[in-house]
Amino acid sequence: MRTTILILTLIAMVTSGLNLNAQSKKALIVYYSWGGNTREIAEQIKSITGAEILEIVPANAYPGDYDECVDQAKKEINSDFRPAIKTKINNLKDYDVIYVGSPNWWSTIAPPVATFLSENDLSGKTVVPFITHGGGGKAKCFTDMQKLCSGATITEGLAIRDSRSKSSKAEVENWLKEINMIK
């Protein structure tokens, strides 16, 4: 009887240790959101994973008018412009997993996200990309993120249509399970 209890106790300790190890990876969600859709997905990921969250804030805000914003974004993307951002992170080394979120602007990531990725070394990290879009799907977003994350392990990304962002929690959770970010 004592032997059985001892064995069960050891099994429980080993199992707990393994689960602790899997869960001990510190994660950060970094995102830029102009219209709130990417923020919605970032918040869903936070509620599911418990990861910390950080919004990428441009030094100069994009115009509030949709057409003006689209015009500015198109010019910036066509010239490979990297706008200054207010968002700085001094403890990036403390994180193992970095979720990176962006709207799909002109078939790529928003310039503030490109700035964040080009200013921060994510080598050795696991990068988990997600985007929102108005119909353009993932386009080149994930491949463009990968180019800016040299030395990082990039998981399969998630693309959510803007109109579904508020009702996509189940889809987000399924994706996180598929890429082994949660059980």
Using only C-alpha atoms, the radius of gyration works out to 19 Å
Structural class: alpha/beta
Low-confidence stretches: 3-23
Q: Summarize the amount of helix as a percent range.
A: 40-55%
Number of helices: 6
Shape: globular
Please identify, by name, the CATH architecture: 3-Layer(aba) Sandwich
> Total domains, how many?
1
Please give the number of β-strands.
7
* Percent of residues in beta strands: 15-25%
The oligomeric state is single chain
What would the CATH topology be?
Rossmann fold
The largest β sheet comes out as: 7 strands, mixed
Provide the CATH superfamily: Flavodoxin domain
CATH class (first level) name: Alpha Beta
Mean pLDDT: 89
Q: H/E series, N to C?
A: HEHEHEEHEHEEH
For the record, give the distance between the C-alpha atoms at the N and C termini, rounded to a whole number: 33 Å
